[in-house]
């Protein structure tokens, strides 16, 4: 039936359909009626071939043709796809076999290389171990020689050290005795100097304490009610005599307020230029009585 899909077959079928339609139409057309007695002419009814039917038949044939062609194309593509898949499977199998052979050859090469390496390493290890034994033997003999030599030197050094220690011990005893005598003399002299210095410092402290009290009292305003009363103050001084802080410690409240004002009014108080004396007086406690 493939000839029906050919253009010539298609044309033949078309003409055959048209002929059949015409024959059927003519055969079944109604017999023309004779005109009536009035002799009036009547139109002749003719059957016309329906073009829509023909077109529908042609479209159906064309659709069947296209469906056939599409089915053949898909079948051919499926066959080609299967062929390609089989070829791909064969190619992959051959590639896998080739890779397997290659891996096996590489493994054999690696195994041979590893065996050669181990053999070479074993030979080198044996050579190193022999050299190491020989080296240790040389070191052992050298160590014994050095040990004997060191023992000899040690005994000689011990004897010399003993003699030297005895000599130094005697010198140390003599030196220690001399240092003891000298230290005692220095202590006596230092004590005398300290005593003189202490007396001097205390004298200076007393002197400047009196000067500070005099300076405060010059600025102190008192009244008869303060008589017989007192106040104890703590005064902090800078190196130039500036009063930096005044703190009341104890005493009559009125006397303390008045004395506190007198200290602040003095602004600066007499201080010694001697650092040691100033260190003792930079913070002093004074008991002031009107």
From TrEMBL:
An annotated GO BP: bacteriocin transport
Taxon lineage: Bacteria, Pseudomonadati, Pseudomonadota, Gammaproteobacteria, Alteromonadales
Superkingdom: Bacteria
Stretches the record annotates as Disordered: 64-171
Ranges of compositional bias, category Basic and acidic residues: 64-94, 104-171
This protein's name: TolA protein
GO MF, any single term: toxin transmembrane transporter activity
GO cellular component: membrane
Record Pfam families: TolA
């Amino acid at each position: 039936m493939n000839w029906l899909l050919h253009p010539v077959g298609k044309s033949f079928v078309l003409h055959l359909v048209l002929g059949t339609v015409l024959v059927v139409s003519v055969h079944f057309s109604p017999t023309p009626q004779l005109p009536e007695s009035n002799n009036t002419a009547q139109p002749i009814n003719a059957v016309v071939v329906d073009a829509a039917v023909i077109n529908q038949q042609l479209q159906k044939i064309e659709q069947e043709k296209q469906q056939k062609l599409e089915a053949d194309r898909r079948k051919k593509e499926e066959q080609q796809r299967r062929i390609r898949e089989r070829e791909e499977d064969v190619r992959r199998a051959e590639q896998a076999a080739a890779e397997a052979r290659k891996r096996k050859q590489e493994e054999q090469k690696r195994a041979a290389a590893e065996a050669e390496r181990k053999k070479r390493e074993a030979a080198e290890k044996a050579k190193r171990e022999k050299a190491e034994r020989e080296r240790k033997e040389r070191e052992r003999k050298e160590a014994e020689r050095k040990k004997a030599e060191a023992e000899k030197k040690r005994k000689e050094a011990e004897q010399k050290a003993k003699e030297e220690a005895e000599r130094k011990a005697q010198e140390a005893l003599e030196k220690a005795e001399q240092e003891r005598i000298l230290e005692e003399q220095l202590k006596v002299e230092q004590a005398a100097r300290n005593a003189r210095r202490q007396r001097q410092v205390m004298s200076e402290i007393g002197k400047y304490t009196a000067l500070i009290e005099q300076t405060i009292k010059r600025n102190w305003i008192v009244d008869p009610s303060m008589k017989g009363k007192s106040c104890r103050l703590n005064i902090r001084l800078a190196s130039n005599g500036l009063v930096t802080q005044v703190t009341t410690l104890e005493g009559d409240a009125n006397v303390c307020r008045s004395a506190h004002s007198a200290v602040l009014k003095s602004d600066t108080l007499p201080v010694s230029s001697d650092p040691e004396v100033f260190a003792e007086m930079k913070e002093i406690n004074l008991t002031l009585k009107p």
